[in-house]
Amino acid sequence: MKKIILFFLSFLLTLSLAGCDLFTSYNQIAADTLLNAYINNPKLANQKYTDKNLEVTGTISDIYQLSHSNCFYVVISQKFQNKRLYRVVAEYPADEINKVSELKKGDMVSVKGLCVGKTPQKSPIMTNIEIKVGKKKSIFSNSISDLFEKLMFNNEKDSTKETQIPKEDMPNSDDLNKAQKEQMPLSMPKEPSPYGKYGPAKSDVRMDAETPEGLFVYFHEQITAHNLREAYRCFSPDFRNQVEFNGWASGYDNTLKSEPTITSQPSITDSTAQIHFDLRATDRDGYSTLKQTFRGTATLYRINGEWKIDEIIARKIS
After folding, report:
1. Contact status, residue 49 vs residue 40, Cβ threshold 8 Å
2. pLDDT by residue (tens digit) across 149-202?
3. Which carries the bigger pLDDT value, residue 228 or residue 97?
4. How far is it, in rounded angstroms, from Cα 289 to Cα 159?
5. Whole-angstrom distance, CA of residue 244 vs CA of residue 24
6. How far is residue 48 from each of residues 53, 115, 286, measured CA to CA in Å?
7. What would the pLDDT profile of 138-164 be if each residue is shown by its tens digit?
8. CB-based burial of residue 199 (10 Å sphere; 0-12 exposed, 13-18 middle, 19+ buried)?
9. How are beta strands 27-30 and 52-59 bridged, if at all?
10. Distance CA 134, CA 111 (A)
11. How large is the average pLDDT for residues 245-267?
12. How far, in Å, CA of 56 to CA of 58, rounded?
């Protein structure tokens, strides 16, 4: 009987982990209603909607992509209140690019996903309420997993009792040592790099920080070379405080080339600069490549004599 229960639970768990909607329910809500809830009573809204599966309906007012992320962002409600801009934003993963390419401003859309509530933004006057499209929380996955583990643990204890080896039949230490030597690999694997897959920050290499354009081009050269720790060093301290390295770097796992073109004369003062650019990005897409073009603006600050990137905003144009 226990085996039947285990089989049934493992079947349900497999369906749940595979993302089967059989175990997922979504609460339907208008984007404007969701936005007002977080504006008027953030604590209550957090309890009702954060970490919940929602189907949110709204009208698209903007579609954009940040250069440090492979995700696409679709604004489906926004409101300026108390000197702050509040927005409901649907975050589409990179593999949903075909869906995003079909969307345009003014479209009415319904998105299904996991509401993660308020997310920190670069701008101090902006607050996003974010819906991660395609993400969901199964209503049964945790309970099924817990029950499955308990049954498996009990089953293992039962089987241990049934298959206890008599003491006189236990192998001696010499036999165990011999068996372990016979199973030893011929060579030990190489130690992993202490810097991980993104390489070291090459602090001994002088960046071209004399001009903001030079720093910006250098930044993308390091992305193309996959020296992402060095590229991350091109950001301002404030930017690095808001964007965690591993999350940012993982967005470039499939990047093959990142090639910027400065499209106009930069606006430069003693301490700030603004660069307008087009970016040609080439990414690995399964067994083929995906080429996209982005247009955007980068803001840089001169810090201790070196230019640093403080903000990059870009949108896909082809």
Report:
1. no
2. 555 545 544 444 444 444 444 445 554 454 444 443 333 333 444 445 565 555
3. 228
4. 51
5. 31
6. 11, 10, 39
7. 655 444 444 545 555 455 444 444 444
8. middle
9. parallel
10. 9
11. 89
12. 7
**Residues near 60 by beta carbon (within 8 Å), at least 6 away in sequence:** 74, 75, 76, 103, 104, 105, 106, 107, 108, 109
Would you tell me how many other CB atoms lie within 10 Å of the CB of residue 129?
A: 25
**Contact indicator for 54, 113 with CB cutoff of 8 Å:** yes
State the DSSP H helix or E strand holding residue 47, giving kind and residue range, or none if neither.
Answer: helix 42-49
Mean pLDDT of 35-63: 92
Among residues 69, 88, 68, which one has the least CA distance to residue 131? 88
Nearest to 249 by CA among 200, 194, 313: 200
Provide the CB-side half-sphere exposure for 198 (13 A, CA): 19
CA distance 5 to 148: 9
Average pLDDT, the chain: 77
| Model confidence, pTM | 0.43
DSSP states of 224-287: HTT-HHHHHTTB-HHHHHHS-HHHHHHTTTTEEEEEEEE-S--EE-SSEEEEEEEEEEEEEETT
d(CA 226, CA 256): 8
Half-sphere exposure of 57 (CA within 13 A, CB side): 6
| E strands in the chain | 27-30, 52-59, 62-64, 72-81, 84-92, 108-119, 126-133, 255-262, 267-268, 272-285, 288-303, 306-316
Cα–Cα distance for residue pair 144/23, rounded to 1 Å: 11
